[in-house]
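Q: What changes when protoporphyrin IX containing FE is included in the input?
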Amino acid sequence: MNGRFLAFAGGAAGAWRVTRMSAVAGEPLATVERVAVTGGAQPQESAGWVLRGATSNERYLRGEERAMLAAVQPPLGRPAASEAALIPIRKSAAWWALAQDERRAVLEERSRHIATGLRYLPAIARRLHHCRDLGEAEPFDFLTWFEYAPADAPAFDALLAELRATEEWRYVEREVDVRLTRA
Ligand code: HEM
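A: The predicted holo structure follows.
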């Protein structure tokens, strides 16, 4: 097990306290008080739920976009970024049936996911975890994680509203929005 594998354990313990949980699409997750972010190999016996994912290579990002991101994207763990969002997402069979170039066309050429996200940097730090190749029974395809300062929470909500109105989000069949604070 290497550092690419992460587990998000919802339960009574963990550094992040849950401030709000809502099911945006599909089944909710059981309500929990805290979320612990740990290496994927550790057992989580007391947890209400455990979501596993792994960071991976990029699928859609073009060279010039990667350079633009690299110039502005902040690291995780900034002391001022005391709030976080864990948003697990599952996309539909129709999404996974598309070819790679068709998915890129939906995600960026038509939905402007990357261009829109870029406008909200450096306020928002992010990390994407993939779940699909970890096993048959993973409940989500992606675990998305964001960190920001309390003052940037409205901007983060505006970003989510923009993305959820796009063609890309028509392929999202399950999405749970879990908000957290380190405070
Ligand atoms: C903060 C600004 C954001 C930026 C700069 C950004 C950027 C990106 C980029 C570059 C990718 C593609 C990575 C690749 O090439 O494989 C990506 C994928 C993704 N992002 Fe964002 N994003 C942002 C915010 C969000 C938000 C708020 C959500 C909502 C939860 C989100 C959900 C996702 C998902 C689910 C994927 C995987 C899509 C797929 O592979 O089908 N992103 N993002």
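Observations recorded in class: The radius of gyration is 16 Å.
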